[in-house]
Amino acid sequence: MDTVNALTFRQKFGEILDKVVSSGQPIVVERQNKPVVVMYPYEEKKAELEKLVGEERKKQLRKMLDEWTRKWGKSIPGEKTTTDMIRETRDNRFGKRWWKTRSNY
User: Fold this and answer.
1) What is the mean pLDDT of each run of 10 residues along the chain (105 residues)?
2) What CATH number should be reported for the domain holding residue 31?
3) Domain tally for the chain?
4) Cα separation of 36 and 70, whole Å?
5) What pLDDT is recorded for position 105?
6) What DSSP character marks residue 100?
């Protein structure tokens, strides 16, 4: 694995990028003789990156769902329950309190 210092990396970024892509070999960038970054060809790490992004997205969605559940509980604010919708439909069809006027079977 090749190494390059940060100053050279900055000055010759395009050349180094082309070298990584064409050779398929990663390059380590060092600052003060200590490795700080590794540049890999995308195709070499594609599967890992996609998995990492997918897992991170799942974590974000779980967090959002947990926050929503803590705030609102299991009900949707402003939404009617099934019972309310059925009652409203019956009221619209037969008039309010229709169940009190019907005969018992």
Assistant:
1) 94 94 93 93 84 84 82 66 77 68 53
2) 3.40.1620.10
3) 2
4) 41
5) 44
6) H
